[in-house]
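BUG: 3D viewer hangs when loading the predicted structure for this chain

Environment: internal workstation, default settings.
Expected: structure renders.
Actual: progress bar stalls at 90%.

Input used:
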Amino acid sequence: MREGDRALVDRFCDMMAAEAGAARNTLLAYRRDLEAAAEVMGSLEDADAPALRKLGEAWSALAASTVARRSSSLRRFYGFLFDDGLRPDDPSAALPRPRLERPLPKVLDTQEVEAMFAEVEGRASSGEPLALRNLALLELLYGSGLRATELVSLPRRAFRPGQPFLILRGKGEKERLAPVSERAAHAVRQWLPHVPENSPWLFPGGKSHLSRVRLFQLVRSMAALAGIAPDRISPHVLRHAFATHLLAGGADLRVLQSLLGHADIATTQIYTHVDAARLVELVNTRHPLATDGR
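C-alpha coordinates produced before the viewer hung:
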Protein backbone atom coordinates (compact mmCIF):
# COMPACT_ATOMS: atom_id res chain seq x y z
CA MET A 1 0.00 0.00 0.00
CA ARG A 2 1.27 3.49 -0.86
CA GLU A 3 2.44 5.74 1.97
CA GLY A 4 -0.29 8.28 1.19
CA ASP A 5 -2.94 5.59 1.36
CA ARG A 6 -1.49 4.20 4.59
CA ALA A 7 -1.62 7.62 6.23
CA LEU A 8 -5.29 8.06 5.23
CA VAL A 9 -6.20 4.60 6.50
CA ASP A 10 -4.48 5.41 9.81
CA ARG A 11 -6.52 8.62 10.13
CA PHE A 12 -9.71 6.75 9.26
CA CYS A 13 -9.06 4.06 11.87
CA ASP A 14 -8.22 6.70 14.49
CA MET A 15 -11.58 8.34 13.77
CA MET A 16 -13.45 5.01 13.96
CA ALA A 17 -11.83 4.22 17.29
CA ALA A 18 -12.42 7.66 18.81
CA GLU A 19 -15.85 8.57 17.44
CA ALA A 20 -17.52 5.23 16.70
CA GLY A 21 -15.87 3.24 19.49
CA ALA A 22 -14.76 0.55 17.03
CA ALA A 23 -13.08 -2.44 18.69
CA ARG A 24 -9.59 -3.63 17.78
CA ASN A 25 -10.83 -6.55 15.68
CA THR A 26 -13.20 -4.22 13.79
CA LEU A 27 -10.35 -1.84 13.00
CA LEU A 28 -8.19 -4.73 11.78
CA ALA A 29 -11.04 -5.84 9.51
CA TYR A 30 -11.33 -2.33 8.04
CA ARG A 31 -7.59 -2.30 7.34
CA ARG A 32 -7.72 -5.67 5.60
CA ASP A 33 -10.65 -4.61 3.43
CA LEU A 34 -8.98 -1.34 2.44
CA GLU A 35 -5.70 -3.10 1.68
CA ALA A 36 -7.55 -5.59 -0.53
CA ALA A 37 -9.11 -2.72 -2.49
CA ALA A 38 -5.76 -0.95 -2.82
CA GLU A 39 -4.24 -4.08 -4.36
CA VAL A 40 -6.82 -3.98 -7.15
CA MET A 41 -6.98 -0.21 -7.73
CA GLY A 42 -3.36 0.72 -7.05
CA SER A 43 -4.35 3.77 -5.02
CA LEU A 44 -7.16 4.49 -2.58
CA GLU A 45 -6.42 8.20 -2.47
CA ASP A 46 -6.69 8.79 -6.23
CA ALA A 47 -9.35 6.19 -7.08
CA ASP A 48 -12.31 7.47 -9.10
CA ALA A 49 -15.69 5.91 -9.94
CA PRO A 50 -14.37 3.80 -12.87
CA ALA A 51 -11.64 2.39 -10.61
CA LEU A 52 -14.20 1.45 -7.96
CA ARG A 53 -16.43 -0.21 -10.55
CA LYS A 54 -13.54 -2.54 -11.43
CA LEU A 55 -13.69 -3.96 -7.92
CA GLY A 56 -16.93 -5.77 -8.72
CA GLU A 57 -15.25 -7.65 -11.53
CA ALA A 58 -12.08 -8.34 -9.52
CA TRP A 59 -14.10 -9.68 -6.59
CA SER A 60 -16.61 -11.68 -8.66
CA ALA A 61 -15.34 -15.01 -7.30
CA LEU A 62 -15.80 -13.96 -3.67
CA ALA A 63 -18.86 -14.65 -1.55
CA ALA A 64 -21.53 -11.96 -1.75
CA SER A 65 -21.18 -11.35 1.99
CA THR A 66 -17.45 -10.68 1.60
CA VAL A 67 -18.01 -8.23 -1.26
CA ALA A 68 -20.76 -6.49 0.73
CA ARG A 69 -18.48 -6.11 3.75
CA ARG A 70 -15.58 -4.75 1.69
CA SER A 71 -17.88 -2.30 -0.09
CA SER A 72 -19.25 -1.15 3.24
CA SER A 73 -15.71 -0.51 4.52
CA LEU A 74 -14.90 1.54 1.44
CA ARG A 75 -18.11 3.55 1.69
CA ARG A 76 -17.27 4.53 5.26
CA PHE A 77 -13.68 5.31 4.25
CA TYR A 78 -14.59 7.58 1.33
CA GLY A 79 -17.39 9.18 3.32
CA PHE A 80 -14.81 10.06 5.98
CA LEU A 81 -12.37 11.50 3.41
CA PHE A 82 -15.12 13.66 1.88
CA ASP A 83 -16.51 14.84 5.23
CA ASP A 84 -13.05 15.80 6.48
CA GLY A 85 -12.16 17.63 3.25
CA LEU A 86 -9.40 15.16 2.39
CA ARG A 87 -10.83 14.74 -1.11
CA PRO A 88 -13.41 16.84 -3.02
CA ASP A 89 -15.79 14.00 -3.87
CA ASP A 90 -17.15 10.68 -2.65
CA PRO A 91 -16.94 8.06 -5.43
CA SER A 92 -18.43 5.24 -3.33
CA ALA A 93 -21.73 5.19 -5.25
CA ALA A 94 -19.83 3.18 -7.88
CA LEU A 95 -19.04 0.35 -5.47
CA PRO A 96 -20.63 -3.08 -6.06
CA ARG A 97 -23.81 -3.78 -4.06
CA PRO A 98 -24.37 -7.55 -4.01
CA ARG A 99 -27.81 -8.75 -3.01
CA LEU A 100 -27.70 -10.61 0.25
CA GLU A 101 -30.18 -13.07 1.64
CA ARG A 102 -29.68 -13.55 5.35
CA PRO A 103 -29.76 -17.26 6.20
CA LEU A 104 -32.04 -18.35 9.00
CA PRO A 105 -30.11 -19.40 12.10
CA LYS A 106 -29.92 -23.04 13.10
CA VAL A 107 -32.06 -23.76 16.13
CA LEU A 108 -32.85 -26.64 18.44
CA ASP A 109 -36.36 -27.40 19.59
CA THR A 110 -37.19 -27.37 23.30
CA GLN A 111 -37.19 -31.18 23.52
CA GLU A 112 -33.61 -31.34 22.23
CA VAL A 113 -32.47 -28.68 24.70
CA GLU A 114 -34.22 -30.54 27.53
CA ALA A 115 -32.46 -33.75 26.47
CA MET A 116 -29.08 -31.98 26.63
CA PHE A 117 -29.83 -30.65 30.10
CA ALA A 118 -30.99 -34.06 31.33
CA GLU A 119 -27.70 -35.64 30.29
CA VAL A 120 -25.47 -32.86 31.62
CA GLU A 121 -27.40 -32.52 34.89
CA GLY A 122 -27.16 -36.28 35.41
CA ARG A 123 -23.38 -36.13 35.20
CA ALA A 124 -23.18 -32.99 37.35
CA SER A 125 -25.13 -34.72 40.12
CA SER A 126 -21.97 -36.73 40.84
CA GLY A 127 -20.24 -33.53 41.96
CA GLU A 128 -17.39 -34.09 39.51
CA PRO A 129 -15.83 -30.62 38.93
CA LEU A 130 -15.70 -30.64 35.13
CA ALA A 131 -19.29 -31.87 34.95
CA LEU A 132 -20.32 -28.95 37.20
CA ARG A 133 -18.40 -26.57 34.94
CA ASN A 134 -20.14 -27.94 31.84
CA LEU A 135 -23.56 -27.48 33.43
CA ALA A 136 -22.73 -23.87 34.32
CA LEU A 137 -21.58 -23.22 30.73
CA LEU A 138 -24.77 -24.74 29.30
CA GLU A 139 -27.02 -22.80 31.68
CA LEU A 140 -25.41 -19.48 30.71
CA LEU A 141 -25.44 -20.18 26.98
CA TYR A 142 -29.08 -21.18 26.82
CA GLY A 143 -30.46 -19.39 29.88
CA SER A 144 -28.79 -16.02 29.34
CA GLY A 145 -28.05 -15.99 25.60
CA LEU A 146 -24.38 -15.12 26.05
CA ARG A 147 -22.03 -14.94 23.10
CA ALA A 148 -19.15 -17.42 23.24
CA THR A 149 -16.55 -14.69 23.84
CA GLU A 150 -18.67 -13.11 26.57
CA LEU A 151 -19.04 -16.44 28.32
CA VAL A 152 -15.45 -17.69 28.30
CA SER A 153 -14.09 -14.29 29.39
CA LEU A 154 -16.42 -13.86 32.38
CA PRO A 155 -14.47 -12.64 35.43
CA ARG A 156 -14.57 -14.83 38.51
CA ARG A 157 -16.41 -12.05 40.37
CA ALA A 158 -18.97 -11.37 37.62
CA PHE A 159 -21.73 -12.87 39.77
CA ARG A 160 -22.83 -10.89 42.80
CA PRO A 161 -25.23 -12.18 45.48
CA GLY A 162 -28.77 -10.90 44.93
CA GLN A 163 -27.97 -9.48 41.48
CA PRO A 164 -30.07 -11.35 38.86
CA PHE A 165 -28.10 -10.03 35.90
CA LEU A 166 -24.58 -9.73 34.52
CA ILE A 167 -22.96 -6.56 33.24
CA LEU A 168 -21.20 -7.57 30.03
CA ARG A 169 -18.91 -5.82 27.61
CA GLY A 170 -19.94 -7.25 24.27
CA LYS A 171 -19.50 -6.40 20.59
CA GLY A 172 -18.06 -2.96 19.94
CA GLU A 173 -17.04 -2.75 23.62
CA LYS A 174 -20.64 -1.80 24.49
CA GLU A 175 -22.01 -2.69 27.89
CA ARG A 176 -25.29 -4.56 28.26
CA LEU A 177 -27.23 -6.44 30.92
CA ALA A 178 -27.81 -10.18 30.59
CA PRO A 179 -30.35 -12.01 32.76
CA VAL A 180 -29.22 -14.75 35.13
CA SER A 181 -31.83 -17.35 35.99
CA GLU A 182 -31.98 -19.05 39.39
CA ARG A 183 -30.89 -22.27 37.67
CA ALA A 184 -27.82 -20.60 36.16
CA ALA A 185 -26.93 -18.87 39.43
CA HIS A 186 -27.19 -22.19 41.27
CA ALA A 187 -25.01 -23.95 38.66
CA VAL A 188 -22.36 -21.24 38.98
CA ARG A 189 -22.42 -21.47 42.81
CA GLN A 190 -21.85 -25.23 42.50
CA TRP A 191 -18.89 -24.65 40.18
CA LEU A 192 -17.21 -21.73 41.99
CA PRO A 193 -15.56 -23.74 44.79
CA HIS A 194 -13.59 -25.61 42.12
CA VAL A 195 -12.18 -22.44 40.54
CA PRO A 196 -8.63 -21.71 41.78
CA GLU A 197 -8.52 -18.79 44.21
CA ASN A 198 -5.88 -16.97 42.15
CA SER A 199 -7.85 -17.25 38.87
CA PRO A 200 -9.30 -13.96 37.58
CA TRP A 201 -11.63 -15.99 35.32
CA LEU A 202 -14.79 -17.90 36.13
CA PHE A 203 -13.85 -20.53 33.55
CA PRO A 204 -10.03 -20.77 33.57
CA GLY A 205 -8.16 -22.69 30.93
CA GLY A 206 -4.42 -22.98 30.40
CA LYS A 207 -2.71 -19.66 31.09
CA SER A 208 -5.88 -17.64 30.54
CA HIS A 209 -9.57 -18.39 30.34
CA LEU A 210 -11.28 -21.23 28.49
CA SER A 211 -10.87 -20.71 24.74
CA ARG A 212 -13.75 -20.35 22.30
CA VAL A 213 -12.48 -23.42 20.44
CA ARG A 214 -12.57 -25.48 23.63
CA LEU A 215 -16.07 -24.18 24.41
CA PHE A 216 -17.19 -25.27 20.93
CA GLN A 217 -15.78 -28.76 21.58
CA LEU A 218 -17.47 -29.00 24.97
CA VAL A 219 -20.86 -27.99 23.57
CA ARG A 220 -20.59 -30.61 20.85
CA SER A 221 -19.68 -33.24 23.45
CA MET A 222 -22.70 -32.29 25.57
CA ALA A 223 -24.96 -32.45 22.52
CA ALA A 224 -23.60 -35.86 21.52
CA LEU A 225 -24.73 -37.23 24.88
CA ALA A 226 -28.29 -36.32 23.88
CA GLY A 227 -27.93 -37.78 20.37
CA ILE A 228 -27.75 -34.41 18.59
CA ALA A 229 -25.64 -34.38 15.40
CA PRO A 230 -22.41 -32.32 15.74
CA ASP A 231 -23.16 -30.22 12.64
CA ARG A 232 -26.38 -28.95 14.26
CA ILE A 233 -24.85 -27.54 17.41
CA SER A 234 -22.50 -24.76 18.52
CA PRO A 235 -22.46 -22.13 21.28
CA HIS A 236 -24.15 -19.73 18.88
CA VAL A 237 -26.91 -22.24 18.11
CA LEU A 238 -27.73 -22.29 21.84
CA ARG A 239 -27.87 -18.48 21.81
CA HIS A 240 -30.29 -18.72 18.86
CA ALA A 241 -32.36 -21.25 20.80
CA PHE A 242 -32.49 -18.84 23.76
CA ALA A 243 -33.87 -16.10 21.47
CA THR A 244 -36.28 -18.27 19.49
CA HIS A 245 -37.77 -19.97 22.52
CA LEU A 246 -38.22 -16.63 24.31
CA LEU A 247 -40.03 -15.24 21.26
CA ALA A 248 -42.23 -18.35 21.11
CA GLY A 249 -43.06 -17.78 24.75
CA GLY A 250 -44.33 -14.28 24.01
CA ALA A 251 -41.26 -12.09 24.55
CA ASP A 252 -41.39 -8.62 23.02
CA LEU A 253 -39.00 -8.07 20.11
CA ARG A 254 -37.54 -4.91 21.69
CA VAL A 255 -36.89 -6.74 24.94
CA LEU A 256 -35.23 -9.54 22.98
CA GLN A 257 -33.05 -6.98 21.19
CA SER A 258 -31.86 -5.67 24.55
CA LEU A 259 -31.21 -9.14 25.97
CA LEU A 260 -29.19 -10.18 22.91
CA GLY A 261 -27.24 -6.92 22.75
CA HIS A 262 -28.19 -6.20 19.13
CA ALA A 263 -27.46 -2.64 18.03
CA ASP A 264 -30.12 -2.82 15.30
CA ILE A 265 -33.63 -4.24 15.69
CA ALA A 266 -33.31 -5.59 12.13
CA THR A 267 -30.80 -8.15 13.41
CA THR A 268 -33.30 -9.34 16.02
CA GLN A 269 -36.15 -9.51 13.53
CA ILE A 270 -34.68 -12.58 11.89
CA TYR A 271 -36.17 -14.56 14.78
CA THR A 272 -39.64 -13.63 13.58
CA HIS A 273 -38.88 -15.71 10.47
CA VAL A 274 -37.67 -18.62 12.57
CA ASP A 275 -40.88 -18.50 14.58
CA ALA A 276 -43.14 -17.72 11.61
CA ALA A 277 -45.50 -20.64 12.33
CA ARG A 278 -46.33 -19.23 15.77
CA LEU A 279 -46.99 -15.78 14.32
CA VAL A 280 -49.31 -17.15 11.62
CA GLU A 281 -51.22 -19.11 14.26
CA LEU A 282 -51.47 -15.94 16.36
CA VAL A 283 -53.08 -14.03 13.48
CA ASN A 284 -55.46 -16.88 12.69
CA THR A 285 -56.66 -17.23 16.28
CA ARG A 286 -56.47 -13.69 17.68
CA HIS A 287 -57.31 -11.37 14.78
CA PRO A 288 -60.92 -10.07 14.94
CA LEU A 289 -61.70 -11.19 11.39
CA ALA A 290 -60.51 -14.74 12.18
CA THR A 291 -63.73 -15.44 14.10
CA ASP A 292 -66.36 -13.96 11.77
CA GLY A 293 -67.18 -17.34 10.21
CA ARG A 294 -65.84 -16.63 6.73
